[in-house]
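Need tokens for this chain, all 108 residues.
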Amino acid sequence: MTGWWFLMLAGISEICYAAAIPKTEGFTRLWPSLYCIFFICLSMYLLALSVRTVPIGTAYAVWVGIGAIGTAIYGMTVLGEAATFAKMFCLLMITMGIVGLKFFSPAH
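Here are the structure tokens for all 108 residues:
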């Protein structure tokens, strides 16, 4: 189960860096850029730890899904992006895909 915890933390780290990208202004602002780079590295490291026990295809899909869902929610709640029914439905489908990958992923 440890690999899945690493994977969840990697996804959360991905949300942190994705949310910071606009604040870097094209990586021209030092502190937001360093924050972003730190979380990019942390996310990759945690993803690498997760694939010790989670298959890479599953891990990568789940990692991207967590990041996509979290970043979309951040955009809607903090940045005022539209929260349409269609967008929410699509995020639900991504969530269902992540749960399905977890449920059907063989343990090794």
